[in-house]
Amino acid sequence: MKENFTEREIDRIIEMAWEDRTPFEAIEFQFGVTEAEVIKIMKREMKASSFRMWRKRVQGRSTKHQKLKPENTKRFKSSRQKHISHNKISKR
Q1: Cβ–Cβ under 8 Å, residues 51 and 44
Q2: Rounded to an integer, what distance in angstroms lies between the CA atom of residue 51 and that of residue 30?
Q3: Quick one: average pLDDT of 49-63?
Q4: Backbone φ, ψ for residue 38 (5° rounding)
Q5: Which residues of 9-24 are buried (b: 16+ CB within 10 A; e: fewer)?
Q6: Angle between the N-to-C axes of helices 7-18 and 48-58, in degrees from 0 to 180, rounded to the nearest 10
Q7: 7-38 confidence digits (pLDDT tens)
Q8: What is the DSSP string of 19-53?
Q9: What is the CA radius of gyration of the chain?
């Protein structure tokens, strides 16, 4: 695991982990951290009560694990949502 994440990267990892529809595989693709490493980051960076609440919510949740999602699941993307590619800010 990369140990020297910037504060912004840690914030984004936590934000993605909190999002119900963002699978751990997406976090691994963007930041190179496994589900177990995300859990360690969350435990280290959050208050104990917030971490317990998050773990209880995501444990076994099909939307957080790509393998548990039904194959025919359609993804919704708002027409107003900006295109995000590999978590890089696009230049105008």
Answers
A1: no
A2: 22
A3: 84
A4: -60, -40
A5: beebbbebbeeeeebb
A6: 50
A7: 999 999 999 998 888 888 888 988 999 999 99
A8: -TT--HHHHHHHH---HHHHHHHHHHHS-HHHHHH
A9: 14
Tokens representing residue 31 in the block: 């930041």
Q: Say how far apart CA 30 and CA 86 lie, in whole Å.
A: 6
Q: 12: part of which helix (H) or strand (E)?
A: helix 7-18
User: Cβ contacts of residue 28 below 8 Å, gap of 6+?
Assistant: 34, 35
Tokens of 15: 């934000």
Cβ-based neighbours of 25, under 8 Å, separated by 6 or more: 65, 66
What is the Cα–Cα distance from 25 to 2, expressed in whole angstroms? Answer: 16
For residue 58, give the nearest of 29, 33, 21 by alpha carbon.
Answer: 21
Give the per-residue pLDDT at 19: 86
Three-state secondary structure call for residue 91: coil
